[in-house]
Amino acid sequence: MHAYRTHSCGALRASDAGQTVRLSGWVHRKRDHGGLLFLDLRDHYGLTQCVVAQGSPVFEAADRLRTESVITVTGEVVHREPGTVNPKLPTGEVELRVRELVLQSAAEVLPFQIAGEQEAPEELRLRYRFLDLRRERLQRNMILRAQIIQDIRERMIAAGFNEFQTPILTVSSPEGARDFLVPARLHPGKFYALPQAPQQYKQLTMVAGFDRYFQIAPCFRDEAGRADRTLMFYQLDVEMSFVTQEDVFTTMEPVLRGTFERFAEGRAVDAGPWIRIPYAEAMLKYGTDKPDLRNPLVIADVTAQFAGSGFGLFAKIAASGGVVRAIPAPGAAGNPRSFFDKMNEWAREQGAGGLGYITFDAEGPKGPIARNLEAARAEAIREACGLKPGDAVFFAAGKEADAAKLAGQARLKLGTDLGLSAKAGFRFCWITDFPFYELNEETGQIDFSHNPFSMPQGEMAALETKDPLTIPAFQYDVVCNGYEMASGAIRNHKAEIMVKAFGIAGYPPEAVEERFGGMLNAFRYGAPPHGGMAAGIDRIVMLLAEEPNLREVNLFPMNQQGEELMMGSPSAVEEPRLKELHIRTVMPPAKGAASPKAS
After folding, report:
1. How far apart are CA 535 and CA 214, in angstroms?
2. CA-to-CA distance for 582 and 185, rounded, in angstroms?
3. 345 assigned to a ligand binding site
4. DSSP 8-class letter at 76
5. I need a labelling partner for 476 at 20 to 30 A (CA). Which of 85, 183, 283, 327 fits?
6. Neighbouring C-beta atoms of residue 206, cutoff 10 Å
7. How many other CB atoms are there within 10 angstroms of residue 328's CB atom?
8. Residue 441, annotated ligand binder?
């Protein structure tokens, strides 16, 4: 007989009754039923009930066990009594009568309970992550993650992609966040950067003549932690040669949709092709470039209906170049005044002045705005929003970006509060035609808005003749249930366009050569048109697992302060090691201190 187990703790069935078996695992629960001691023994595969009778040579040893101790038990498989069968367990028809018990590893008193639904503070869970991971929910999440990655990998290979690995130690690149830097011991004063994405390398793979590349790539971004973003994450990284934007869509959509369909467990998944929404339209209709389409509400622009109207506040906003956005609220007119007051209070909590509103009944429009607005204008608003008697409409007004953001937030809140948003299922869309550039409000300079390596629509002619802020790029996102799940672009594969594009963003040619010389040099030796995308593995798992936080689908995550509490990372480094790396640390001054202290 094997030293530790003949079966897993999830394997035994009624057909095994009468066999002598050996199991190993963790003591999940203990129950003393007066003369009989029940031990639920758990391993990765399941749980088996073990029984130790009083008077057994191992009873005292079993009685002393703490939960989460690791033991090996040997005994006979027997049928449970009819009234004790547990139909919720695959092993629920049988139990193990223990004859031998070996303590493999004793557990100390637990910092929190593993069995049951009792929650523990996140900091404690992360500090004892190895215990937290023993819980059924997290075990299920990690197995789901592994299965999803395997499924994606199989689908990519079946679609003709080859899996390559790109360097982890690379050069700093403007990907939109701070780089993590690694000192180069052999090159004093120089640093490697951990890749924010394998962007340049995957493009160079296409220049090298490979046609379809992918990898499950680790990426690193030194930015503030959020529920849906971490310092390190994994993405499905993809690049293809000789493709248009449409080719990328038709190739990758079946891969992503197929994975969701496999793991949806009965939840609806949008059939293809997924709808395409231009960026400007998304910002108008949903107030965000990450719309949750489970919410049926669509925002309308009603600036023209208020321009020159009797409602002075909105008329003044329209006259000064602002906008007024209308958020429909079907069936809301019958709600008490307190409903509308709470919406206004909520808007003020978001930093806005409030939300105006109009209600409609059989007699027409009602409310403070309606009393000061011409009837024809109120009717035009009703038609623009598709409203009927019993409905209401809320308004967000101000600068376009501010009004769009507030309207988008109000749309989500109304969808939830009015019970209009579906809670299950997966709704997808492609967001297309992102602006190539944006204006940095702090500096007044033109910056790249999304991905600097994208091809501007119109190529060189657009860069030379158009207002940069009006140029769209061949950039696109996949959005699912309000989350950006993937992002991609058709790439700029021409050196002269790349130099021109970076020049508009304030990079002189010599700076472009210095920072991106490897890619520019490669482009000068014949580069194919190419494009691709990257899909967030962590977000895919988070969505399918219905978890609100990426930390629940990662084995050993950091907290929001970028600390890995279990191992104590980041940690201080001894002075001799710093000297070897030619580094001095300069600590920030303590409160009231005159200057930083170097060490």
Report:
1. 11
2. 7
3. no
4. E
5. 327
6. 25
7. 23
8. no
Q: Which positions ≥6 away from 20 have C-beta within 8 Å?
A: 1, 74, 75, 76, 77
Strands (DSSP E) contained in 33-159 are 36-43, 46-53, 70-79, 94-105
Among 264, 397, 377, CA closest to 318? 397
- Residue 289 near residue 279 (C-beta atoms within 8 A): yes
580 marked among binding-site residues: no
222 is in an annotated binding site: yes
- How many CB atoms neighbour CB 94 within 10 A? 20
User: Is the pLDDT reported for residue 376 higher than 70?
Assistant: yes
In angstroms, how far is CA 121 from the centroid of its own chain? 22
Residue 537 annotated as binding site: yes
Find out whether the peptide bond into 570 is cis, omega within 30 degrees of 0: yes
Distance CA 101, CA 449 (A): 64
The number of CA neighbours under 13 Å toward the Cβ of 359 is 15
Is 97 among the annotated ligand-binding positions? no
DSSP secondary structure letters along 39-66: EEEEETTEEEEEEEETT-TTHHHHHHPP
**Alpha-carbon gap, residue 65 to 58, rounded angstroms:** 11
To the question of whether residue 536 is assigned a binding role by annotation, the answer is yes
- Confidence category of residue 599, pLDDT binned at 50, 70, 90: very low
CB-based contacts of 590: which residues, under 8 Å, 6+ apart?
none
Q: Which amino acid is at 237?
A: D
**175 labeled part of a ligand binding site:** yes
Residue 148 annotated as binding? no
In the chain, what is the straight-line distance between the N-terminal and C-terminal CA atoms, in Å? 60
223 labelled ligand-binding: yes
Residue 62 backbone phi and psi in degrees, to 5: -65, -40
Q: Which residue has the tokens 């790439």?
A: 491
Q: What percent of the chain has pLDDT over 70?
A: 97
Q: Binding site annotation covers 539?
A: yes
The pLDDT value given to residue 176: 61
Using left for φ > 0, alpha for ψ between -120 and 50, and beta otherwise, residue 211 falls in alpha
Question: Can you give the pTM of this predicted structure?
Answer: 0.92
- For residue 543, CA distances in Å to 69, 117, 315, 370, 492 come to 34, 22, 43, 42, 32
Q: At a CB cut-off of 8 Å and minimum separation 6, what does 411 contact?
A: 286, 287, 295, 297, 299, 327
CA distances from 271 to 298, 424, 425 (A): 21, 15, 12
Report the mean per-residue pLDDT for the chain: 94
